[in-house]
């Protein structure tokens, strides 16, 4: 059976290892065992495995829910909502973001904004853009307890209650969560317009093709049925045991490529996407990083990276391009594509037909990730190291509640508008940054963790700094906005082999926003500014405790300008 997505492999020197991995997995019956829900594919203990395999059936089971989703979308349209704002983190927000960016806004349907930042400037910007009387909020959290999501909910609930009256506020909210979560109870008590209860046997990062992806998609008029149909084609392809290049089980191939590559030291899986799939990389990043980055192992996803000439890439890279047909040869092209095909790097090209193939791609990557997880011998469904940062952030907040201030960390250098914190060599921020990233281990990586408000200007500045560091060091450089990355690459940063070094970028929000203690109550003991600062401090503690080097650059004033200046000087 030909794959619904063309998977072209140029394995180069990995060819034998990939082939061996496929043959070994065939012999061990890995594919049928995955489909039979056999937890021993990964671990002897079924904990968080046997009850995390619902995504394998989702493309079929979700079909039965589509009529309900479409009816809800009509109801929302009919009620005059012009905007939908999704509040959620990680697996609860990344797939809706991919879908809403891929498909252009449909006439007569609301538009979607995803808010997964707790930076006060990001919140006030979104708030200022809304006519609350015409806005519906989706509160999306599997666990029902994620602090960022619940804090955003409490803030916007009070905003709506102020504008529409407490009795009408609930009608502006719907929830997507697991049955019996804290959010379900809260949503019932506040009279939410709708509560969608997802299959609890699906983990957050595997939930794109469940209610978490499909409800927001339906609300903005995306044809979820077509997306599911494409995914079903991939489900069938991933049931096959046989695999030969360009044919057979594409999930097995891609997983073998990622897993065998990592075992051979090519653990920087660089994903290059066509503009059509612009945000797909962010979704893949969470899937790979949170699934594989643990137990001292891991695959480092490198996404949204500016292309460079082959000399800037280390021997630890492999590449995967995701594109529509014409682009595979040219669109993501440039010198890199030519050099990849000349044999410099192992690479796989995934060719989709059109945007609806995103359904196939979601499933393909999910399957490939658990196959790679099997090869690495890790548990692809848990995230044990996310907790350490949460515990530290809670400690910081407890201190804040008690004393009204967060614990201070001593500055190493104060230089114009930059405060440097951390062990440092050099007398300017530029020198310190340069020596810090130069000291990244051979075939290690640099993680830029930006606790600032996302914007296109900030994206461009971070991109410039990222490129400058990569070109200087030939190390892979990843970028994530905080606290969003804590729910994506945060697990890998603390759980992998420890070859990452981390640069925290923090700033001073222009305003601060209080987080209500409870929805409907004005009292507040913590602000969003304190929360994001506590999370940065907490993750710093967790990284240091795990033996990871951390440098903090605290910037005052024009952050993008300072980042550009640092990049230029590097
Ligand atoms: O959907 P929830 O429970 O709010 O979780 C959001 C994200 O946080 C994590 O649980 C931990 O980072 C992710 O796995 C998940 O996608």
Automatic annotation (TrEMBL):
Pathway: Carbohydrate degradation; glycolysis; D-glyceraldehyde 3-phosphate and glycerone phosphate from D-glucose: step 2/4. Pfam families: PGI. GO terms for molecular function: carbohydrate derivative binding; glucose-6-phosphate isomerase activity; monosaccharide binding. It comes from the Bacteria. GO terms for biological process: gluconeogenesis; glucose 6-phosphate metabolic process; glycolytic process. Its EC number is 5.3.1.9. GO terms for cellular component: cytosol. It catalyses: alpha-D-glucose 6-phosphate = beta-D-fructose 6-phosphate. Keywords: Gluconeogenesis, Glycolysis, Isomerase. InterPro entries: G6P_Isomerase (IPR001672), SIS_dom_sf (IPR046348). Belongs to the GPI family. PANTHER family: GLUCOSE-6-PHOSPHATE ISOMERASE. This is Glucose-6-phosphate isomerase. The lineage of its organism: Bacteria, Pseudomonadati, Thermodesulfobacteriota, Syntrophobacteria, Syntrophobacterales.
């Amino acid at each position: 059976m030909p794959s619904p997505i063309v998977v072209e492999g140029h394995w180069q020197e990995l060819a034998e290892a990939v082939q061996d991995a496929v043959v070994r997995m065939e012999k061990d019956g890995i594919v049928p065992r995955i489909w039979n829900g056999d937890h021993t594919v990964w671990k002897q203990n079924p904990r968080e495995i046997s009850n995390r395999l619902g995504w394998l059936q989702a493309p079929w089971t979700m079909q039965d829910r589509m009529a309900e989703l479409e009816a809800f979308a009509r109801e929302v349209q009919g009620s005059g909502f012009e905007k939908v704002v999704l509040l959620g983190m990680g697996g609860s927000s990344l797939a809706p973001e991919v879908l809403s960016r891929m498909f252009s806004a449909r006439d007569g349907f609301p538009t979607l904004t995803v808010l997964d930042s707790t930076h006060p400037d990001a919140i006030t910007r979104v708030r200022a853009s809304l006519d609350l009387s015409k806005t519906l909020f989706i509160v999306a959290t599997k666990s029902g307890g994620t602090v960022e999501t619940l804090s955003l909910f409490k803030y916007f609930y009070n905003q709506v209650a102020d504008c529409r009256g407490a009795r009408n506020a609930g009608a502006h909210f719907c929830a997507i969560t697991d049955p019996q979560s804290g959010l379900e109870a809260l949503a019932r008590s506040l009279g939410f317009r709708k509560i969608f209860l997802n299959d609890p046997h699906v983990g957050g990062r595997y939930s794109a093709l469940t209610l978490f992806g499909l409800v927001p998609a339906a609300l903005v008029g995306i044809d979820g049925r077509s997306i599911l149909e494409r995914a079903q084609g991939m489900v069938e392809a991933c049931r096959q045991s046989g695999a030969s290049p360009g044919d057979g089980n594409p999930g097995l191939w891609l997983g073998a490529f990622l897993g065998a590559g990592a075992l051979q030291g090519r653990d920087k899986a660089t994903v290059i996407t066509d503009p059509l799939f612009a945000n797909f990389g962010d979704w893949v990043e969470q899937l790979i990083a949170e699934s594989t980055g643990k137990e001292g192992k891991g695959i480092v996803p490198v996404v949204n990276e500016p292309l460079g000439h082959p000399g800037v890439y280390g021997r630890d890279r492999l590449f995967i391009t995701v594109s529509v047909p014409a682009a595979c040869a040219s669109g993501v092209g440039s010198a890199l594509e030519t050099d990849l095909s000349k044999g410099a790097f192992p690479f796989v090209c995934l060719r989709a037909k059109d945007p609806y193939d995103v359904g196939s791609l979601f499933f393909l990557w999910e399957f490939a990730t658990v196959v790679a997880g099997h090869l690495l011998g890790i548990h692809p469904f848990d995230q044990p190291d996310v907790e350490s940062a949460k515990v530290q952030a809670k400690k910081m907040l407890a201190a804040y509640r008690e004393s009204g201030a967060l614990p201070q960390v001593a500055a190493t250098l104060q230089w114009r508008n930059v405060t440097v914190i951390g062990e440092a060599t050099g007398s300017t921020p530029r020198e310190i940054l340069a020596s810090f990233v130069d000291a990244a281990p051979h075939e290690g990586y640099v993680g830029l963790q930006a606790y600032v408000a996302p914007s296109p200007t900030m994206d461009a500045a971070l991109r410039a700094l990222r490129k400058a560091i990569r070109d200087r060091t030939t190390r892979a450089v990843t970028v994530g906005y905080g606290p969003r990355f804590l729910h994506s690459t945060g697990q890998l940063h603390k759980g992998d082999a420890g070859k990452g070094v981390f640069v925290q970028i923090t700033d001073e929000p222009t305003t601060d926003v209080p987080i209500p203690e409870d929805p409907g109550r004005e009292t507040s003991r913590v602000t969003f500014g304190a929360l994001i600062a506590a999370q940065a401090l907490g993750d710093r503690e967790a990284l240091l405790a795990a033996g990871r080097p951390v440098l903090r650059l605290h910037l005052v004033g024009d952050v993008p300008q300072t980042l550009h200046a640092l990049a230029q000087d590097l």
